[in-house]
Amino acid sequence: MQKIHIILFILFFIWITGFNPILSQEKYSIDINKSSIKWTGEKFTGIHYGRINLNEGELILQNNKITGGSFIIDMESIEIDDLEKDKWYDKFLKHLNSESFFDTEKYDKSYLSINKTKALADSTSKIFATLEIKGIKNNIEFIASYSFKNDMILAKTKLIIDRKKFNIGYGDESFFDRIGDGFLYDEFTLEINIISKQR
User: Fold this and answer.
1) Where are the beta strands (DSSP E) in the chain?
2) What proportion of the chain, given as a percentage, has pLDDT over 70?
3) Domain ranges of the chain
4) pLDDT by residue (tens digit) across 21-62?
5) Is the model's pLDDT at 18 over the cut of 50?
6) How far is CA 20 from CA 25, 63, 76, 117, 158, in A?
7) What CATH number matches the domain at 23-198, 3.90.950.10, 3.50.4.10, 2.40.128.110, 3.40.50.720?
């Protein structure tokens, strides 16, 4: 009988306080020096690709599942990896930073915020998030996989982004015609690899 009273008291305490040890949140800070973002833009005649840096970010977990997080991308850090650093490299990089493309002087940061998630497997989740580029917000969905190593999380995903929705270089194909580069397709990708450490 005494055991029953103790169990009832514990259950009452959990109900009255809202205490739930199973659902406690864990926060992981992004290691911006070890994490990476690769961008790829396809065109009629091939592809362009390069890198862009994370400024800061965090992942939130419950029961070893990603449930939230936010990331800030440093738009001024964009680099092109498929071109030699010559005059064409300089022209293309200048154009990517220009008002008609990413307009990095005005919008030097982009933001990704995780709104909710749906667990698909032990280490895979569907992510519902909001992406902000050039001050324009759109909801996106993508699949992320992750693994644990000591007190770190290794996560990776691939975002497919329609540049028209963010007013990125749309209607600006004349620039690529002038440099003989062909038309850029509407979609570009961001391959994100995250290494984060528990706080």
Assistant:
1) 25-30, 36-43, 46-62, 65-80, 109-121, 124-133, 136-149, 152-162, 184-198
2) 81
3) 23-198
4) 445 789 999 999 999 999 999 877 788 999 999 999 999 999
5) no
6) 10, 11, 43, 20, 34
7) 2.40.128.110
